[in-house]
Design goal:
Elements: H1 2-13, H2 19-38, E1 56-57, H3 70-78, E2 90-95, H4 102-112, E3 120-125, H5 138-149, H6 160-170, E4 176-181, H7 186-190, E5 200-205, E6 216-219, H8 225-238, H9 245-254, H10 258-270, H11 281-295, H12 298-307, H13 317-324, H14 328-340, E7 345-348, E8 351-353, H15 356-364, H16 371-396, H17 419-442, H18 448-461, H19 465-481, H20 485-501, H21 505-522, H22 525-541, H23 545-562, H24 565-581, H25 585-601, H26 605-621, H27 625-641, H28 645-661, H29 665-682, H30 685-701, H31 705-722, H32 725-741, H33 745-762, H34 765-781, H35 785-802, H36 806-815
Parallel strand pairs: 1-3, 2-5, 2-6, 3-4, 4-5
Antiparallel strand pairs: 7-8
Helix pairs in contact: 1-2, 3-4, 5-6, 8-9, 8-10, 10-11, 12-13, 12-14, 13-14, 13-16, 16-17, 16-18, 17-18, 18-19, 18-20, 19-20, 20-21, 20-22, 21-22, 22-23, 22-24, 23-24, 24-25, 24-26, 25-26, 26-27, 26-28, 27-28, 28-29, 28-30, 29-30, 30-31, 30-32, 31-32, 32-33, 32-34, 33-34, 34-35, 35-36
Length: 817
C-alpha cells in the first residue's frame, strides 16, 4: 500500500504518468517494508549500570494444585498495582496462621502478574520464624536484593540508609514484583520498598503489620469443606489413585490448612495411611505430622530431629549426615524418604528444607533428658563439616592461604569444579554458610575464626565488606576470650584486607602489624608471608615503592619456603607492578611473566586477568598498542567468565586509554565512562579517581578544558582523602597541563613543581619524565629556550631508558629549538 501511494504521488508531482517509474517505486518500497519486517531488529542499546538486560526472576515454582483462593487472585489481578506517579509502590499484605498458604498465594499471584512486571520477579524470605541464626535482617535482605538485581552496586557499607538509597536508586523507573516472605515488622517492608510506583510488593506475615498501609490486606483462613475436598480430590486424581468419596469427605472435615491437607493426602497415597480419629478439632491439624513422625523408622526420625537444628535454607546430604552422625549414603536415603513423605520440601535443586511449622514440631518431638547434650554434639559436628566445606570451596575459588597451620576441619565431598563454577556454588550456598557462622558466633565456638576465614575471600570479592568485617570482629573477640593467638592473627589480617579494599590504609596497617607480630611469635611462615604481602600492598597504594618492594621480596621468600605457589605468584605480581610504576619495565615483565606461569599452573583465572592487565599496561607505555589491546581484551574475557565486575571495568579503562592514545576519542569516552560507572557502583575510591583522571586527560586532548578540570578536581579530592601520593602528583601534573594550555603559566608551574616533588620522592621515572616534559614546554612558552632544552633532555633520557613512545615527541620538541 505504501509503495502504491508513493508511486502515484510521484507521478502526479512529475505531471506525467510513467508506468516504469510507478512499478519501480512500488517494488522498491515494498522490498524495503519486507526487509524492515523480517530482518533481525538492531541490537538494543545497553542499559545503564544497575539494570538487567533481561528479567531477573528468583520466584520459586508455583504448586500445580492450588484451590480455594480464586477470589484473592482476582482481587490481586484487578488491582491496578501501579499507584499514581510520585506515589509509592503498591503493597499487598497476606496474613494468616502457619500452614494456611500465605507464601503459596503470594507465589501464585507473582507468577500470574509477571507479565505486568517485566524487569524482575524477586522472592526475598526473611525466615523470621526459622530461629535466630536462620532469620535474616533488613541489611541481609538489602544485600541479597542488590546482588541479585543490581550486581554492580557497591555493597561496601554497613549503613542501612546507604544500602536503602542504593536499592531505591537501582529500582528507579523499574517494573518489579517482589515477595517479602515471613515479615514481622514494618521496617522490613518499608526499607525494601522500590522507588518506582510501577512496582508491586507482596508481603506475607502471621499478623497484620501496622505502619505499612497495604493497598490490599487479605486475612487467610482455612479452606472450606468444599474447597478442601476439591484440593484433596485434585491431588489424588493427579496421582492416579482411587479412594472412596467418604474418605475425601472425612479428610476434608479435619484438615483445612493447605499444608496439612497436602501432608495427609501424601500419607494416604504413600500407603502410610491416615485417619481423622476422634482427636479434638484444635489438635487434629498438626497431629497429622506427629503421627507421621511416629511411623518413621529410627534412622529417619533421627535425621528429622537433627536436621531441624540446621539454620540455613538448603540442607545438604553432607550436613544432614554430620548432624545425625551417620554416613552420607544413609543420610541421602533418609532425606529422600522424608521428602517423599512430605515432611521435608525441596524447593530447588540445592537442598532440603522445612516449613517453619514442621520444623517447630520436629524440634519438640520425642525429646528426652539427653536431648540438649545430643543437640550440642550434633551442632559441633555441623561446624566441623562446615569447616571442611568452606576450605574446600575457598581452594576451588583460589582463595589465599593465611596460615601454615592446617584447619581443624571435617571432611567435605564437593565435586571438582572450575573457579567460575565454584563461585556460582558459593553464591547459592552463601546464605547457608552465613547462617552456620552466625550460629557459631551465637555459641562462641572456638573455631569460629576458621569458618570466617574460609568465607572472607568470597565476601571480599563480592564487596560484601560490612558483613565480612562484622564476622571477623566477632570471631576476633571469641579468639581473644579463648586466648587463641592464631585465631587473633588470622582475623587481624582479614580485617586489614577489608580495610585496604576500602582504601582505609592507616587502619589496614594497624591490623596488619598486629597480625604479623602474632605470626612472628607463633613462627608461622605463611602467616608472616601474608603479613609482609599485605604491608607491601598498603605501601604500594601509598606510593612507598621501595618499602613495598622490600615487603614483597620478604613475602616471596617465605612463600617459596612454605611451598605456597599462590602466595609466590602474588608476590611476583606485586614486584612486577612496582617495577612498572618505577619504570623498570624489563624487570617488571620478568616478574609478571613468572607470576602468570604460576597462576596458570594453579588455574587461578582471576589473577591471570590481573597479570594480563599489568603486561598490557607496560606494552601500552612502550607504544605496543595492538599487543596491549590484546592483553586487555583477554583480561576482560577472563573477568567476564569469572564474574569479576571490577576486573571488567579495569580492562575497559585500559582499553579506553589505548583508544585515546590511538586517536579513537569516541571509543575512549565510551569505555572510560563505562569503567567509571562500574567503579562508582562498586565503591572502589582509588579506581574511581583513576578513571576520573583518565577522563580528564581525554577531555584535555579533545580541547574541552573546563570539562577536563571538573574531572581532575574530583579525582584530586579523592586522592587527598585516601592519602594516595602518586594519584595527587598525577592530578597536579594534569592540572598544570591544563593551565599551560590556557596560558596560566604561573599556576601551571606551581602544579607541575608540586608533582615533581612527589614523583622524585617516590622515584616514579614515568612521572618524572612527564614532569620534565611539561616544565620544558612551560619554559618554551616563556622563551627560555636553554631551560626548555635542559628539561626536555632530562625527559628524553628517562623516556628512552623506559622505551616509552613519548621519546619521539620529546625529540621533535628538541629539534624545534
Amino acid at each position: 500500500m505504501l509503495g502504491t501511494a508513493v508511486g502515484a504521488v510521484t507521478n502526479v508531482i512529475t505531471s506525467s504518468w510513467n508506468w516504469w517509474l510507478f512499478v519501480s517505486l512500488v517494488l522498491l518500497v515494498s522490498l524495503c517494508a519486507a526487509a524492515a519486517t523480517y530482518l533481525p531488529a538492531p541490537a538494543s542499546p545497553p542499559r545503564p549500570a544497575g539494570q538487567q538486560a533481561g528479567a531477573v526472576s528468583t520466584l520459586p515454582p508455583a504448586s500445580a494444585v492450588f484451590t480455594g483462593r480464586g477470589s484473592a487472585l482476582e482481587r490481586f489481578a484487578d488491582h491496578p498495582a501501579r499507584a499514581q506517579p510520585n506515589h509509592r509502590a503498591a503493597v499487598f499484605l497476606i496474613t494468616g496462621e502457619p500452614g494456611v498458604g500465605k507464601t503459596e498465594l503470594a507465589v501464585q499471584a507473582a507468577h500470574r502478574l509477571a507479565d505486568r512486571f517485566p524487569d524482575a520477579q524477586l522472592f526475598l524470605a526473611f525466615r523470621s520464624h526459622g530461629g535466630r541464626s536462620s532469620s535474616l535482617n533488613v541489611r541481609d535482605i538489602l544485600l541479597n536484593a542488590l546482588e541479585t538485581f543490581a550486581p554492580a552496586v557497591s555493597l561496601a557499607t554497613s549503613d542501612i540508609d546507604h544500602l536503602g538509597s542504593s536499592w531505591r536508586a537501582a529500582t528507579t523507573d523499574q517494573q518489579i514484583v517482589m515477595i517479602l516472605d515471613d515479615v514481622v515488622t514494618s521496617e522490613q517492608v518499608l526499607r525494601l520498598l522500590p522507588s518506582s510506583h510501577r512496582c508491586l510488593v507482596i508481603t506475607t506475615a502471621r499478623q497484620f503489620i501496622a505502619g505499612i498501609d497495604p493497598d490490599i490486606h487479605l486475612r487467610l483462613e482455612g479452606l472450606s469443606q468444599e474447597e478442601a475436598e476439591h484440593m484433596i480430590g485434585e491431588i489424588i486424581r493427579r496421582a492416579s489413585y482411587q479412594v472412596p468419596e467418604s474418605t475425601i469427605r472425612e479428610l476434608a472435615a479435619v484438615h483445612r490448612l493447605p499444608l496439612t491437607i497436602r501432608h495427609a493426602v501424601d500419607q494416604l497415597i504413600s500407603g502410610a495411611g491416615t485417619s481423622a480419629g476422634r482427636l479434638p478439632a484444635e489438635r487434629r491439624e498438626t497431629q497429622v505430622f506427629t503421627n507421621s513422625f511416629g511411623r518413621l523408622d529410627s534412622r529417619e526420625r533421627l535425621v528429622l530431629h537433627r536436621s531441624s537444628l540446621y539454620p540455613g535454607p538448603h540442607l545438604t546430604v553432607s550436613f544432614a549426615a554430620a548432624l545425625a552422625d551417620i554416613s552420607t549414603a544413609e543420610a541421602e536415603v533418609a532425606l529422600a524418604e522424608l521428602h517423599r513423605l512430605g515432611l521435608m520440601h525441596k524447593p530447588d535443586p540445592y537442598g532440603y528444607g522445612f516449613h517453619d511449622l514442621v520444623r517447630a514440631l520436629a524440634l519438640a518431638d520425642g525429646r528426652d533428658a539427653n536431648a540438649d547434650q545430643e543437640d550440642e554434639l550434633a551442632i559441633s559436628r555441623l561446624f566441623q563439616t562446615a569447616l571442611g566445606v568452606v576450605y574446600e570451596v575457598s581452594a576451588l575459588i583460589n582463595g589465599p592461604v593465611v596460615t601454615s597451620t592446617p584447619p581443624n576441619r571435617g571432611t567435605a565431598s564437593l565435586s571438582p569444579m572450575a573457579e567460575s563454577e565454584a563461585l556460582t556454588w558459593m553464591s547459592v550456598y552463601f546464605d547457608d554458610l552465613r547462617s552456620v557462622i552466625r550460629l557459631a558466633i551465637d555459641r562462641s565456638w572456638n573455631g569460629t575464626w576458621e569458618l570466617v576465614s574460609g568465607i572472607s575471600y568470597y565476601m571480599r570479592l563480592h564487596r560484601n565488606i560490612p558483613q565480612a568485617e562484622e564476622f571477623n570482629r566477632a570471631a576476633l573477640q571469641i579468639a581473644v576470650a579463648a586466648r587463641d593467638r592464631l585465631g587473633q592473627a588470622v582475623c587481624q589480617l582479614w580485617l586489614a584486607r577489608m580495610a585496604r579494599t576500602m582504601n582505609e590504609y592507616t587502619l589496614a596497617r594497624s591490623h596488619t602489624s598486629r597480625g604479623l607480630s602474632l605470626f612472628v611469635e607463633l613462627d608461622d611462615v605463611i602467616g608472616r608471608a601474608t603479613g609482609h604481602a599485605e604491608l607491601g600492598y598498603i605501601d604500594h597504594h601509598l606510593a612507598r615503592y621501595e618499602d613495598a618492594a622490600d615487603h614483597a621480596t620478604q613475602a616471596g621468600a617465605l612463600y617459596r619456603q612454605a611451598g605456597n605457589t599462590r602466595g609466590h605468584a602474588n608476590s611476583e605480581g606485586l614486584l612486577g607492578m612496582l617495577g612498572r610504576l618505577t619504570g623498570d619495565y624489563r624487570g617488571a615483565v620478568e616478574h609478571l611473566e613468572l607470576a602468570l606461569d604460576l597462576f596458570t599452573e594453579i588455574r587461578n583465572e582471576r589473577n591471570q586477568a590481573w597479570i594480563h592487565c599489568e603486561l598490557g599496561t607496560i606494552q601500552r607505555q612502550t607504544g605496543a598498542y595492538e599487543e596491549a589491546r590484546n592483553q586487555f581484551r583477554l583480561a576482560r574475557e577472563i573477568s567476564v567468565r569469572t564474574g569479576d565486575l571490577n576486573g571488567q571495568a579495569w580492562a575497559d579503562r585500559e582499553l579506553g586509554i589505548v583508544a585515546r592514545m590511538t586517536g579513537a576519542h569516541d571509543e575512549a569516552l565510551s569505555l572510560l565512562s563505562s569503567a567509571l560507572q562500574v567503579f562508582t557502583d562498586l565503591g572502589g575510591r582509588r579506581n574511581i579517581a583513576d578513571a576520573l583522571v583518565e577522563l580528564g586527560t581525554l577531555y584535555r586532548v579533545s580541547g574541552q578544558v573546563e570539562t577536563a578540570r571538573t574531572f581532575l578536581v574530583r579525582a584530586q579530592s579523592i586522592y587527598r582523602d585516601i592519602g594516595n601520593r602518586r594519584g595527587l602528583a598525577w592530578t597536579e601534573l594534569e592540572l598544570g597541563a591544563l593551565d599551560r594550555l590556557t596560558g596560566a603559566v604561573e599556576a601551571a608551574r606551581e602544579h607541575i613543581d608540586q608533582a615533581m616533588v612527589t614523583y622524585t620522592a617516590i622515584r616514579d621515572k614515568s612521572g618524572m619524565a612527564r614532569t620534565h616534559f611539561e616544565l620544558g614546554s612551560l619554559a618554551a612558552l616563556r622563551g627560555a629556550e636553554p631551560m626548555a632544552r635542559r628539561h626536555w633532555e632530562r625527559s628524553l633520557a628517562l623516556y628512552e631508558s623506559m622505551g616509552s613512545p613519548e621519546a619521539d615527541e620529546t625529540r621533535r620538541r628538541l629539534s624545534t629549538l
